[in-house]
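Tokens for chain A. Residues wanted.
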């Protein structure tokens, strides 16, 4: 079955994104709570089957240089109203927030590097794993980030972008296969070993 990546820019799609996160991270893995204040500024992406519209994958994109904000958590009951965290935003709104927090720096070769994104909350629905859907939605997120920074670049020149993420340690092989490099040693978060990963790519010339 073919799938497509979409941004959760309606209350219905956003609720689907959060439901899958609760299903995987809270019900399956025991992380609680799951919904937090960063979802107000995150770009939520879903993977849907094109025929059935069933949501089989999810992740969120945050600006990597986002300043630390007051960290609040929300219960699953918050999904009952349309004012849930992150609701009421169009793709244009999401792009504006993402770009607002970008920091650029030129390297010795003249490439303008964007601080890029921190990708997180990647999950695939039980029963749809081992079909490459995690790889697909990760690739689609990277493509969205690259398009967004390229559209924002007004001055001519070569640009690049960094992708960062914090992953559960058992997923190390998955991210390495997608071109990510492990930074430092594993550390404990929420009682589980995690690793920091990064990938830097040149987007092209503008």
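Reply:
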């Amino acid at each position: 079955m073919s799938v497509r990546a979409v941004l959760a820019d309606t209350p219905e799609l956003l609720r689907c994104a959060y439901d899958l996160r609760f299903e995987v991270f809270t019900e399956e893995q025991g992380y609680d709570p799951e919904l937090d204040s960063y979802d107000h500024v995150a770009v939520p992406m879903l993977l849907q089957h094109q025929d059935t519209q069933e949501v089989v994958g999810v992740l969120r994109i945050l600006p990597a240089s986002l300043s630390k904000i007051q960290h609040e958590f929300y219960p699953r009951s918050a999904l009952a109203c349309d004012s849930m965290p992150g609701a009421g935003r169009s793709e244009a709104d999401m792009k504006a927030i993402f770009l607002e927090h970008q920091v650029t720096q030129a390297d010795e070769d003249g490439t303008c590097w964007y601080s890029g994104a921190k990708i997180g909350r990647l999950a695939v629905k039980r029963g749809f794993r081992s079909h490459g859907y995690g790889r697909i939605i990760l690739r689609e997120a990277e493509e969205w980030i690259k398009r967004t920074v390229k559209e924002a670049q007004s001055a001519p020149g070569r640009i690049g972008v960094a992708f960062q993420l914090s992953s559960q340690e058992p997923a190390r092989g998955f991210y390495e296969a997608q071109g990510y490099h492990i930074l430092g040693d594993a550390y404990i978060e929420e009682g589980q070993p995690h690793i920091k990963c990064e990938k830097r790519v040149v987007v092209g010339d503008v």
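Residues 170 and 194 are 8 Å apart (CA to CA). The mean pLDDT is 93.
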